Amino acid sequence: MLQFFNRIYFLRRYLIAVPFLLLATSFIPVFAQIDSRLTAEGWQEFTFEDKQQNRFKRVGTDIIEIETDSSVSIAYLPFEAKNLDLRKTPYLAFEWQHEGQIVDTDVSKKGGDDRILAIYLAFPYQPEHASFKEKLLRPLVVASKGRDAPGRLLTYLWAGAPEVGQWFENPYTGKAGYMQVIQGAKDGSNRGDTWRGHKVNIVRDFEEKFGHFPPTPAYVAIGVDSDDTGTKAITRVRGLGFVK
After folding, report:
1. Vertex 225, ends 174 and 138: CA angle to 5°?
2. Angle at CA of residue 188, ends 186 and 190, nearest 5°
3. How far is the C-alpha of 95 from the C-alpha of 110, rounded, in Å?
4. Which range is least confidently modeled, 25-29, 48-52, 222-226?
5. pTM for the whole thing?
6. CATH class for the domain made up of 19-243
7. Is the dihedral of CA 127, 131, 136, 138 positive or negative?
8. Which of 6, 23, 59, 231 has the most other CB atoms within 10 Å of its CB?
């Protein structure tokens, strides 16, 4: 099975110049900072080269806790298509909570783009909806990362900027990925005593950004990034799942 985002999202530091190759080339897998309960559920972790990774652990039955300290990494969970029908459950719901230092950076710009928390959705490559450039580069992606390498992504962020609700291109993937800050950096308590709930319409957002009904997502992922600002915090996510 595809090794997640293989620098799909998401994203971050060691990208090559061609946008669509970003979707499959930069994560370095290190399976060390994610606890046994999460791995038993199917969660895995990707880290970035020469970067300290976050610590992910299951708390209780429904909470994932991420401890970050000048670190960056992503935990991801593959989906089985037979268990998810976006026509019946088009919304992704979750709650998140933060305690510790506030990260307040602009995630639309390369470099220095730390975020309190990000929820990522990766979607399979669809040749019938791919651009000429994507089709041209796809054989290189397949040769490097396999036929299951994703082709599109949506990212929902708790971050400093841009403004809440504004969509923008992922600065590392261009039009293959779009991001939206859904909660501002200073919006909510940083004492770890307040849960903030969100419910995002994946079908509507995908159709708006990519122009067609989405395929079943390949993965959902959770990431925290504090390596640029050197901050230390604990972030928690609960209730993550697709709903009507």
Report:
1. 30
2. 80
3. 27
4. 25-29
5. 0.85
6. mainly beta
7. negative
8. 23
- Distance between CA atoms of 26 and 117, rounded to whole angstroms? 20
Q: Where are the domains of the chain?
A: 19-243
pLDDT mean over 71-92: 88
Average pLDDT over residues 93-111: 91
Report, as an integer, the average pLDDT of 199-207. Answer: 97
| Number of C-beta neighbours around residue 154 at 10 A | 25
> Which residue from 157, 156, 76, 154 is spatially nearest to 116, judged by alpha carbons?
157
Nearest Cα neighbor of 67 from 39, 35, 95, 90 is: 35
Tokens of 98: 């933060």
Residue type, 94: F
Nearest-angstrom CA–CA distance, 44 and 34: 7
Please name which of 122, 148, 170 lies closest in space to residue 11, comparing C-alpha atoms.
Answer: 170
The span from the CA of 142 to the CA of 134, in Å, is 12
pLDDT of residue 82: 62
Q: 87: helix, coil or strand?
A: coil
